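pinned: reference chain
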Amino acid sequence: MKKYISFFRIRFTNGLQYRTAALSGMVTQFFWGAMEILLFKAFYEAAPEQFPMEFSALATYVWLQQAFLTLYLAWVWENELFQTITTGDVAYELCRPVSLYNMWFARGLAFRLSKASLRCMPVLIFAWFLPAPYGLTLPHDISTWLLTILSMVLGLLFVTAFGMVVYLSAFYTISTQGTKLVISSLSEFLSGAVIPLPFLPPKLGRIFSLLPFASAQNVPFRIFGGDLKGDAIVTSLALQVFWFLMFLMIGRMMERHALKRVVVQGG
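pinned: its structure tokens
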């Protein structure tokens, strides 16, 4: 376990070096979040009874989405892992006395956490100081905070496990560009990153909520904003655990199969 903690620490420390990129990202997220909220506000004023979420809950959802953008969106790829496979440098990784999957999983967690840690607090503080209902609304009970933290951890584990499946798919393809493009587009829509899932038609929303991508940002952000309550929280947390374990199993199976047939040419 110590060696994987070391991989995590090294990758996390390395990710903290890109402060200028994080600053430019924060500015973009401030403006993007503000524009998105103002756009929704125009629709709410036109027909407030037509929307399934309170506007304050929606604003909280948008600001959390911007603050933890790099934590949950699938298109935040660690391209170095793709290159390691496609260039054959994975041969060096296989010489190490560690599990390739565990090492890359630790790196994937550190990669996302390092990027999010540089951006999240300024965005959250900015949103907290905005006047109601445009800003970040904090929960009043400790149980909501604890459930949100639990759901955020499960969501991060799921996204990392899902990313591992995409990384390992590079063993089976000539180019990963098509895979990344399709997965990025689908996951962004199905996870509620474009439109929150409650805004979809009821039948479609129920179907999407059962799909794996809904187990990322959709669940913790809606719990925090008070949009998910009671049995719906229990069901959503159970789905998060299920999809994490499912993709964890798929990733490990792909790793075992790929390493039995991997061929590295050159010397």
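why pinned: The two ends are 32 Å apart (CA to CA). The CA atoms of residues 6 and 203 lie 46 Å apart.
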